[in-house]
């Protein structure tokens, strides 16, 4: 048995030396030191030996195991050192090279425009208010004087989640919710920025998702002249003191009377050019006096309170401010485009 153990030791040590990776070493370990290995088989036959021979063979078996285990550990370390050396040679770094410049992020141009508009209206005493993007049909339409059979609903093709829930088509629901929270007592003076959703085909001037900022002021004795004064102040602060405004009659279900606000063209100074279609004016937002029905549905007495509301598209104001010709630039994450606004 001792001779057999010595033979197995030599075989194992030979195979350990020939092993080229740790996987082969593990195979050798299992083969010779495993429970079903030849060394274990030899030692199981010790029951047939005399009492004097058993301790000698047992000691020899332990010596063989230890020798194999020691050589395995030594070979494993050698292979690990060789692998590390090879990896270091492949990944050699030239520490004399200059470091890579860390690129600093910047605000998205739409975020900058929203914050600028917010600052202007906050300076006029307005409060910034937000609301849910998944809205009920009631707050999105009915509370805005758009009952279920109203033909003006076709103007806002919507994404419905269920028969009563939809992705809001405007930020007007925030106005309705805010008026409700005042329980029929003014004043209410808010702007509502946020994303809205409509089933539009994406092109240079339309998107299925875009941003709006709507404003609302409700109090006693609010007049159309107050609306004009607020919007004129806003336009001059945003576009420049030289810009002029005009109001044109229009129609919105939730305001009466309603109007479109035009701003004098900043390219031609009102003389007429391609940008303003040779009219000298550019349409920028819709506005009007809050419809008495909307006030009543939100808990305000229309005989006591009046108010005005307006709504603007953030992307449109961004296009006009920066001279951008395609709304899709805002959403494609093209770094060549976004880097132009790193100092905005």
From TrEMBL:
Cofactor needs: Mg(2+)
Cofactor: how and how many bound: Binds 2 magnesium ions per tetramer.
PROSITE patterns listed in its UniProt record: AA_TRNA_LIGASE_II
Residues of the Aminoacyl-transfer RNA synthetases class-II family profile domain: 111-340
UniProt name for this protein: Phenylalanine--tRNA ligase alpha subunit
Species of provenance: Marinococcus luteus
Family: Belongs to the class-II aminoacyl-tRNA synthetase family. Phe-tRNA synthetase alpha subunit type 1 subfamily.
GO CC terms of this entry: cytoplasm
Catalysed reaction, written as an equation: tRNA(Phe) + L-phenylalanine + ATP = L-phenylalanyl-tRNA(Phe) + AMP + diphosphate + H(+)
Main location: cytoplasm
Keywords: Aminoacyl-tRNA synthetase, ATP-binding, Cytoplasm, Ligase, Magnesium, Metal-binding, Nucleotide-binding, Protein biosynthesis
Subcellular location: Cytoplasm
Tagged with keyword Aminoacyl-tRNA synthetase: yes
């Amino acid at each position: 048995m001792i001779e057999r153990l010595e033979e197995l030791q030599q075989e194992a040590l030979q195979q350990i030396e020939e092993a080229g990776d740790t996987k082969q070493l593990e195979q050798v370990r299992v083969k010779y030191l495993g429970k079903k290995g030849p060394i274990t088989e030899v030692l199981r036959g010790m029951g047939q030996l005399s009492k004097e021979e058993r301790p000698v063979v047992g000691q020899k078996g332990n010596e063989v195991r230890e020798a194999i285990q020691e050589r395995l550990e030594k070979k494993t370390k050698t292979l690990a050192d060789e692998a590390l050396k090879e990896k270091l040679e492949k990944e050699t770094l030239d520490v004399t090279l200059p470091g890579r410049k860390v690129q600093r992020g910047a605000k998205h141009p739409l975020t900058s425009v929203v914050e600028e508009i917010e600052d202007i209206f906050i300076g006029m005493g307005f409060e910034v208010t937000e609301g849910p993007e998944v809205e009920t049909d009631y707050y999105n339409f009915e509370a805005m004087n758009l009952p279920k059979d109203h033909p003006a609903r076709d103007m806002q093709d919507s994404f419905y989640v269920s028969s009563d829930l939809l992705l809001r088509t405007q930020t007007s629901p925030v106005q309705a919710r805010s008026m409700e929270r005042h329980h029929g007592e003014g004043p209410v003076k808010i702007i509502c920025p946020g994303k809205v959703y409509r089933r539009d085909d994406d092109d240079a001037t339309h998107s299925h998702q875009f941003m709006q900022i709507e404003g609302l002021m409700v109090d006693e004795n609010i007049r159309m002249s107050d609306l004009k004064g607020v919007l004129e102040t806003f336009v001059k602060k945003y576009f420049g003191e030289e810009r002029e405004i005009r109001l044109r009659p229009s129609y919105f279900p939730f305001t009466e009377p309603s109007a479109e606000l035009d701003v004098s063209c900043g390219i031609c100074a009102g003389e007429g050019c391609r940008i303003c279609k040779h009219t000298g004016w550019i349409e920028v937002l819709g506005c009007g006096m809050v419809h008495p029905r909307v006030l009543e549905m939100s808990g305000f007495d229309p005989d006591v309170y009046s108010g005005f509301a307006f709504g603007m598209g953030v992307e449109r104001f961004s296009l006009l401010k920066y001279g951008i010709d395609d709304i899709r630039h805002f959403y494609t994450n093209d770094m060549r485009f976004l880097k132009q606004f790193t100092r905005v």
